[in-house]
Design goal:
Distance between the termini: 105 Å
Strand order of the largest sheet: 12-15-18-21-24-27-30-33-36-39-41
Strand content: 25-35%
Number of domains: 2
Bound molecules: uridine-diphosphate-N-acetylglucosamine, calcium ion
Oligomer: single chain
Helix content: 10-25%
Number of helices: 8
Number of strands: 41
Length: about 450
């Protein structure tokens, strides 16, 4: 049985932020959310998050996660002290405990799996995730006898000059046999340079302990400041983009594109430069997105094109063309084979198939049928200053240029709205509606000059 504990009580002073460090976001998820997700693969029976600095805020940020236990560390007296807070919570627990740092967000699930498997195969008291770093400065150094049996961990600040030469470092990720760990935790002393209780001392008391070197040392990068946050974002982006390219997605100029790791793409999607895909977005095969587009939390069907447009919280069905300069927001649904064009904004609007809104329109809170043609400059006046109202437009209806549809209003099927109309009352099927002042022409009329 496996339990997971995440150390997340620290303030993260170097972030220079009001927000606790572990709540900072990396792509669409916070640091601590990423750490929680990275250990899903080992199916932990219990998940404990140790909180301290702005603990309430950290808790609130994890509201959507179920079965998380929060452990308070009111004073932050070191990583060993944080682990000591677990003792009453894990009383009677006889399984293994994975300990992760809340500020190490790039771990791959397989790495954690390997750590746990090594731990269990060797029946270790503790197993340590280590890395060989080109620049190990700042990290605790790990000394082993033979290949991977641990003899000692020494914090960077407590290292001799000779010990500092060792490039094998402690990632701060551990797997412990909980009963053995619980027995040594109360023995920790704060007799070090920082006067803190070190979790690494507990490791030094245990035996046998082996280490597992992580293959890609970028995985154990800790976030202490904004520069490291940006570096981690780039690493994550590279991973995500490489994955999609391997799976058959074309990225034109990948450096100018960003893709959250919550996005799903099918083979033969093409992403053009300066395009950003965020949140729970999915794009189906054959679609071409960009250049210059932002899509968030939206589902895009097959063979859709999106050019210089912004789409959020919306659905676009197959073979539809969007843009340039279209804005879809607030639960829009665009049917199949539609064309939504230049300078069009749709909000909370559902369009049937083969419907066009090609130029300069705003449709808010509107439902249309199929094969509707919304003429250039058509506007739904959906807001009376207090409430929003709906507009309904039947199949095959056409609105003339510069029509204003004052909601609540229903236009039937096969209606024609004359250009420049301000339509305030419902229109039945098969009608022409003209709602504008009749043109007046005064023949032979001339401005009278004051002279004559
Ligand atoms: C720790 C390790 C070091 C390792 C490094 C890897 C110790 C003594 N040293 O050092 O060997 O190379 O991680 O990144 O453990 N935290 C608490 N409560 C506390 C103190 C810390 O919850 O009282 C949390 C922090 O929020 C953070 C994590 O523990 O998420 C690590 O603490 P930090 O102070 O950053 O440890 P390091 O000095 O980096
Ligand atoms: Ca750290």
């Amino acid at each position: 049985m496996v339990a997971v504990a995440i150390l997340a009580a620290g303030r993260g002073t170097r972030m220079k932020s009001d927000l606790p460090k572990v709540c900072h976001t990396l792509g669409s998820l916070s640091l601590v959310e990423r750490v929680l997700n990275s250990c899903l693969a080992v199916e932990p029976k219990r998940r404990l998050v140790i909180v301290g600095y702005q603990g309430e805020r950290v808790k609130a940020s994890l509201e959507s996660f179920v079965n998380i236990e929060f452990v308070e560390q009111t004073q932050q007296l070191g990583t060993g002290h944080a682990a000591q807070q677990l003792i009453p919570y894990l009383d009677g627990f006889t399984g293994d405990l994975l300990v992760l740092n809340g500020d190490v967000p790039l771990l791959r699930p397989n790495t954690i799996k390997l750590l746990l498997e090594t731990h269990q195969a060797n029946q270790n008291a503790a197993t340590l995730l280590t890395a060989q770093l080109p620049n190990p400065q700042g990290y605790g150094r790990v000394f082993c006898n033979g290949q991977d049996r641990l003899t000692q961990i020494v914090e960077d600040r407590d290292c001799t000059a000779a010990q500092k030469q060792n490039r094998r470092i402690n990632s701060g990720i551990y797997c412990f046999n909980w009963p053995k760990f619980a027995k040594v935790l109360p023995q920790l002393q704060a007799n070090n340079d920082q006067k803190e209780y070190y979790i690494t001392d507990a490791v030094n008391y245990l035996d046998p302990v082996t280490v597992v070197d992580v293959e890609d040392y970028q995985e154990i990068l800790g976030i202490n400041d904004r520069k490291q946050l940006a570096t981690a974002y780039n690493i994550l982006q590279t991973r995500v983009k490489e994955t999609w390219m391997e799976r058959g997605v074309t990225l034109i100029d990948p450096a100018s594109i960003t893709i959250d790791d919550t996005v799903e793409l099918q083979p033969d999607v093409i992403i053009e430069p300066q395009t950003h895909l965020r949140g729970k977005t999915a794009i189906a095969s054959g679609s071409r997105i960009g250049p210059g587009s932002l899509i968030e939390n939206s589902q895009i069907g097959e063979n859709v094109t999106v050019l210089y447009s912004v789409i959020s919280d919306s659905v676009v069905k197959n073979n539809t063309r969007i843009g340039p300069y279209t804005h879809l927001r607030g639960h829009v649904e665009v049917g199949e084979s539609c064309r939504i064009g230049n300078f069009v904004e749709l909000k909370n609007t559902q369009l049937g198939d083969r419907t066009n809104v090609a130029h300069l329109s705003y449709l808010g809170d509107t439902t249309t049928g199929d094969r509707v043609n919304v003429g250039a400059g058509t506007i739904t006046a959906n807001y009376d200053g207090v409430k929003k109202h709906r507009t309904k437009i039947g199949d095959r209806t056409k609105t003339g240029s510069n029509s204003v549809l004052v909601a609540p209003i229903t236009l039937g099927e096969d209606v024609n709205v004359a250009a420049g109309s301000i339509v305030t009352e419902d229109v039945p099927n098969d009608s022409l509606v003209i709602a504008r002042a009749r043109q007046v022409v005064k023949r032979g009329w001339r401005l009278k000059s004051s002279e004559s």
